[in-house]
Amino acid sequence: MDYSSFGLKDRIAIVTGASQGIGRAIALGLAQAGAHLVLAKHPVGNMDAIEKVRAEIEALGRQVIIVPTDVSQPTQLTALMEAAKEKFGAIHILVNNAGWTGTTLALEVTEEEYDKTMAASLKSVFFACQAAARIMIPQGGGRIINIGSNFGEIGFKKRSVYAAAKAGVHHLARALSLEWAHDGVVVNVVAPCITETESRRNILERPGYKEWATTEMLPRGRWNQPEDLVGAVLFLASDMADMVVGHVLMVDGGWTIH
User: Fold this and answer.
1) Which of 63, 106, 127, 152 has its CA 20 to 30 A from that of 80?
2) Active-site residue (options: 3, 114, 162, 209)
3) 4-248: CATH class
4) What is the DSSP code string of the chain?
5) 92-112 confidence digits (pLDDT tens)
6) What pLDDT digit, counting tens, does each position of 167-196 carry?
């Protein structure tokens, strides 16, 4: 895909949760648009997938580093931003993609599950934005794109805590932009519906689920693919979106227009 028209050549972009699914697609899209990448990967677990993403980005002629990061830990997020600045001298784009959700009925959600969801899906976003803004504001600005969810706008069974976290992510973009836009740091959200990734396969393969969702809930008649998010992220990261401030851009096949 030719994304050169977005004008992101030699921009420095950080993507969290970049080893697979939406994060991988966004990282590769940014590289195809000309950006150099900093990939954040949880320090626990197999590194093979993120190394493959690194190789794909380098094959495009871009520079890339991997920074092991537990996004639920603010000190590690600060270290991530500092590593990016030390390597490249600046941070122009931050994409907060990493997150986690349980699939538990509200009456059965434990405190542990609640805390894990909020830490991975909301706390991490706030402190990543804060750490990035501390570098972006002195350098004259930057673009932050947080990955939200259509569940941040509508209700859905077994997603009560996740929906609350994503609603927080959506409103956080407005609140942070109100504080930082005058200094050139703009925060926006791209909000997908359920996207066909490895981590969602167990949901999509439930009997009748795909047919119900694609015929009744999605006017476009199909699930999101990870690549469907790329254009929205690149637009919000580009100078073309200079006056798009604190916005939630739905990329959900029309789910939320019901």
Assistant:
1) 152
2) 162
3) alpha beta
4) ---GGG--TT-EEEEES-SSHHHHHHHHHHHHTT-EEEEEE-SSS--HHHHHHHHHHHHTT--EEEEE--TT-HHHHHHHHHHHHHHHS---EEEE---------GGG--HHHHHHHHIIIIIHHHHHHHHHHHHHHHHT-EEEEEE--GGGTS--TT-HHHHHHHHHHHHHHHHHHHHHGGGTEEEEEEEE-SB-SGGGHHHHTSTTHHHHIIIII-TTSS-B-GGGGHHHHHHHHSGGGTT--S-EEEESTTGGG-
5) 999 999 987 878 889 999 999
6) 999 999 999 999 999 999 999 999 999 888
